[in-house]
Amino acid sequence: MRDVLNLFKLRIGVAIALAALAGLVVERGAALAAWQVVTLVLAVLVSSAAAGAFNQYVERDIDVRMARTRNRPFVTGRLPHHPAWLWLIGAMIAAAVLAATLATNAVAALHVFLGAFTYGVVYTVWLKRRTWWNIVVGGLAGSFAVLAGAAAVTPTPGPEAFALAVVLFLWTPPHFWSLAIACRDDYAAAGVPMLPVVVGDERAARAIFAGAALLVGASVVPAAFGLGWIYLAAALSGGAWFLLKCRTLLERPGRETARASFRASLVQLCAVLIGVLLDVAF
């Protein structure tokens, strides 16, 4: 069971599903029935899980060369690296898209598909081994989750949802580059051109701090379109913590400060998404 949870990257999937729920609740329009909301959130979770499994299936040759990933189930052989997995992954994405279509509409379902496609194909297959822009473009996967939730309410999402989608897009680079500094030797050994491998830790730390500052600024924007003080307090608190850790990383680039920045990015994302849900609820 632990290997299966690892394979489908369910912790990431839960965050992506929460982003879809946040996009749904900020959008103005006709209220959805509870079963529609649950179906859409599960569709996003399943499609994200399928994309995570595809990522590990494709990257087994990279994972075996990295200390962080060499215990993944396809690398160790605890799960067989067999083409049957591709059929299962395809079936999961098809089921998620169909469920989203039947429960909501085709536009929401398209965004569910695009989120999985961006992470699984655009990021994993096309960009990751070729350019340091990989994770910048890959950040669109989270944005599509927000837009899927919003499109479930109305096929033309409003400014609140778009602003939140921008936050998810801007969150990914400083989050992942922090991890890439902590694991730079791994990525170098695997030949993956993550930003710290290409430009070094110091320049990457400057990019992380700049990205975090841009992210925190963008996280305030949804408050201008209707979200209230609960959201704003959560976004600013999480953003301030993230910026503080990024500042420390900027002053002392290294593995420990990068891990602290990475963890702070998770705090910032949780603060934004939970802040949305609490603000709308209360």
Explain what the structure shows.
The chain is mostly helical and 282 residues long. The chain has helices spanning 2-7, 10-26, 34-58, 60-63, 73-76, 84-103, 106-127, 134-138, 140-153, 159-182, 184-190, 195-199, 201-224, 229-251, 255-281. It folds into 2 domains: 1-126 and 144-149, Orthogonal Bundle (Tetracycline Repressor, domain 2); 158-282, Four Helix Bundle (Hemerythrin (Met), subunit A). Helix content is 80%, strand content 0%. The N and C termini lie far apart (37 Å).
Can you give keywords for this protein?
single chain; 282 residues; Tetracycline Repressor, domain 2; Four Helix Bundle (Hemerythrin (Met), subunit A); 0% strand
Concise structural overview:
The chain folds into two domains: 1-126 and 144-149, Tetracycline Repressor, domain 2 (Orthogonal Bundle), CATH 1.10.357; 158-282, Up-down Bundle (Four Helix Bundle (Hemerythrin (Met), subunit A)), CATH 1.20.120. 80% of the residues lie in helices and 0% in strands.
Architecture blueprint of SSEs:
Elements: H1 2-7, H2 10-26, H3 34-58, H4 60-63, H5 73-76, H6 84-103, H7 106-127, H8 134-138, H9 140-153, H10 159-182, H11 184-190, H12 195-199, H13 201-224, H14 229-251, H15 255-281
Helix pairs in contact: 2-3, 2-9, 2-10, 2-15, 3-6, 3-7, 3-9, 6-7, 7-9, 9-10, 10-13, 10-15, 13-14, 14-15
Distance between the termini: 37 Å
Instruction: Give the integer mean of the pLDDT values.
Output: 96
Number of strands: 0
Low-confidence runs of at least 5 consecutive residues: none
The percent range for helix content is: over 70%
CATH topology title of the largest domain? Tetracycline Repressor, domain 2
Seen as an oligomer or otherwise, the chain set is single chain
Number of helices: 15
> For this structure, what is the CATH class of the largest domain?
Mainly Alpha
Count up the domains: 2
Q: Sum up the overall morphology in one term.
A: globular
Look at the helices and sheets and give the structural class: mainly alpha
Order of helices and strands: HHHHHHHHHHHHHHH
The CATH architecture assignment of the largest domain turns out to be Orthogonal Bundle
Q: Give the strand content.
A: under 5%
What profile does the largest beta sheet have?
none
Please tell me how large the radius of gyration is.
Answer: 18 Å
